[in-house]
């Protein structure tokens, strides 16, 4: 077995620009930088009829993309080469079996006389040949099911790139080559295949296929029990049914989280008024890298500096390590943060906005009566 590859230009048709190379290393020598190619491994051991290579053109139709619905035509036809098959010669007349290429050449003199002059058989003639060689069951058990499976898998693979317009359809032509064991190998799928009356075989099959297309696209849509001709539905995709609407709003809306400031429910008394007065007297200066406060008050310091929470309130090694680093950075002397010494007032007594409190007359009277009682007891 050799390592032969076939190269097809991606934007050409009718066999133009197709070449065969002896190894994969020769592919880079042929491929250009500005053109797309299809590179395939060549079927080196194909099934031949009277030493002549052939392929099978199989029609199928897609009537819906979502869900994917595929119809396959029962009849197909074979296209023969005009020359005997050989791997020693890479000429297109030996290896490219499409009619656009073979019509340029005359049939070889060494070809068997049983082969048609126009190089085409329909599938019924091919079945008769299989019966003649004792392989009648290969068509129903291997060839036709294999072509069907190849078409379904190829359409599923390309479903996402297909046009999903409603009320449309497309007919395709799939080309297959059979191996020595009758296994079908998919070569390519052509959209808008040639339906011209080029030979006696296509002159009979193409009009019949077009009539059956109308039966599927129009008649079947109007009446589900109408005849579809030779088209059989080979695949219809099962799409999941949409569940009924339950009236529940399952949408998710993102919102910002705000932390409300705690408000004291106690009424402001004298202590609260004195604290407010101390806070008003506090002046915080921000030089280049120091924070300075002018009042020494626990309440003031506790409000200026953030409250350090214990690491026990959190779980997880990452949070615990972070809280330990914060504790060290604040309590150690060389943490990098310097607090200025508070300025202590020079007066011994801190002036009070309310002034010195005076004793009431009732309190003074009680004190005088207690003093008189003590004197009487001594006497």
From TrEMBL:
Species of origin: Rhynchophorus ferrugineus (Red palm weevil)
UniProt xrefs under PANTHER family: TUBULIN MONOGLYCYLASE TTLL3
A GO CC term attached to the entry: axoneme
Primary localisation category: cytoplasm
Biased composition (Basic residues): 369-379
Stated name of the protein: Uncharacterized protein
Protein localization: Cytoplasm, Cytoskeleton
Pfam families: TTL
Biological process according to GO: cilium assembly; cilium movement
InterPro entries for this protein: TTL/TTLL_fam, TTLL_monoglycylase
Region span, Disordered: 334-379
